[in-house]
Amino acid sequence: MTTFKDLFIFSAVVALLTCSQRAIPATLNWSLNPLVIQPGSRTTMQIKLPTHALVERGLDPAKVEPTLRLDLLDATPLLRILHSSHSRTQTEQVWQFQITAYRVGRFWIPPIEVTAGPLTFSTESISLEVSGVGEPVDQPLPGPDPIALRSSFWIWLLGCLFALFAGGLAGLMAYKKRKKMSRAHPLAVQIAPTQSDFEWLKHELAALRTLLAHGQNDIIDEYTNTLRAFFSRRHAFAANTYTTYELRQKLGNNALTSTLWPLLDRCDAHKFAKQTAQPEILGLRCIEETEDLLNQCHGI
Questions:
Q1: What is the band of 207 on the pLDDT scale with cuts at 50, 70, 90?
Q2: Which has the closest alpha carbon to 62: 93, 86, 84, 85?
Q3: How confident is the model over 100-109, as pLDDT tens digits?
Q4: Are 125 and 222 found together in one domain?
Q5: Is 90 a domain residue?
Q6: 58 within some domain
């Protein structure tokens, strides 16, 4: 015979089960790092969906393929996705996006929805600050993990010992082989010709012309990166880490650079202020003026 006590216990169990089902968290994790960038640099947005978030809601992860809705992010005119990736493990699925902005200011990355069958998860809006060109960015850095440091140290030490052993063994074998060959057939040492900095730059400019010919209208980023690589080859420093202003301060003006600085200034005005309505014309003009300059200054 069912008593009032039995009914009370049954009702309590049902209520606890109902509350526990409602208390399951959304478990969608997301992050943005760094939160402050300079114009044209990258920040990484990461979205993680644990597998248990689907299992706890009665879905089979092997049969459900989560999808992302990026229409709000794609519709944001001042933000640009440079690269995206998706990976899956037994415990979670991870999406990563490389995002940039070319204007100074504060921007909001809109919510991104993740749909898995009948379920929908969503991130929140995240603030991204873009500071001025060359301004210092003050961001807190996470402290190192002591366990990871110890593990990486031993891995590094073993790798160095193995490299020394392999290098010594290879050097000894090469020495014996060279000594044997020199006794049998002595040969004159020949040095292979290397490509000059000017020849290299001409080759890269020709490659940029090919991009324009195949329909890539905006090659301004490629052109400025090529000039910085040229400065790195010619002066042996990491020119890609310098702004145009810093390069001008470091290298000064001569027959070569006095013509290149105005070209870089026009490219920066296009990248950061969008002052050029037809980037293909600017790109072609920069290539032509640089080629003319190389023909005049060859041998400097």
A1: very high
A2: 93
A3: 988 898 888 9
A4: no
A5: yes
A6: yes
The verdict on 122 and 45 lying in the same domain is: yes
Residue 113 within any structural domain of the chain: yes
Residues 6+ apart with CB under 8 A from 290: 201, 205, 227, 260, 263
Better pLDDT: 260 or 13: 260
Q: How many domains does the structure of the chain reveal?
A: 2
Percentage of residues in the chain having pLDDT higher than 90: 16
pLDDT digits (tens, 9 = 90+) for 36-68: 999 888 999 999 989 888 888 888 888 888 888
Domain carrying residue 107: 21-130
Does 12 reside within a domain?
A: no
Do the beta carbons of residue 297 and residue 255 sit within 8 Å?
Answer: yes
pLDDT tens-digit map of 267-280: 888 888 776 668 88
Distance CA 108, CA 233 (A): 39
Q: By the 8 A CB rule, do 91 and 51 touch?
A: yes
pLDDT for the residue 134: 46
d(CA 287, CA 227): 11
Tell me the pairing of strands 119-122 and 113-116: antiparallel
